[in-house]
Amino acid sequence: MDISLGQTARDLRESLGLTQRAAATALGISFVHLCNIEKNRAAPSQALIDKFREVWGVDLYVLAWCTFGNSSKLPKPLRKAAADLEKGWKEHVKTLIEKHRQSAGH
């Protein structure tokens, strides 16, 4: 599977238990724009990538690579570092999701 920022944004939003409208409001964009990003009809701007980092502490590029990337295609010396990065980011996102759900009263 190709690396998909849209799918990554959608997976993160759903993991946080947010509707598109709630996530779009938090990001300061229209829900239609977020829908288009999640369906890969539009690419997120750098400003929006920065907003994801500001609001949820997540870099969509790194998370997308950790979710959809294939470390076996990397040069051998980089594979362990890539695996460590993937593991660390998944743990980071899991912690963010747990904190968000606790603060939202879920």
Q: How would you classify the helix and strand content by structural class?
A: mainly alpha
* Top CATH class: Mainly Alpha
* Low-pLDDT regions: none
Number of E-type strands: 0
Number of continuous helical runs: 6
What are its keywords?
6 helices, 106 residues, 434 Repressor (Amino-terminal Domain), mainly alpha
Polypeptide structure, described:
The protein has 106 residues and is an all-alpha fold. It has one domain: 434 Repressor (Amino-terminal Domain). It contains six helices and no strands. It has helices at 5-15, 20-27, 31-38, 46-56, 60-68, 76-103. Helix 1 crosses helix 5 (60-68), helix 2 (20-27) packs across helix 3 (31-38) and helix 5 (60-68) packs across helix 6. The chain is globular, with a radius of gyration of 14 Å. It starts with a helix and ends with a helix. 21% of the residues are buried. The model has no long low-confidence stretch (mean pLDDT 89).
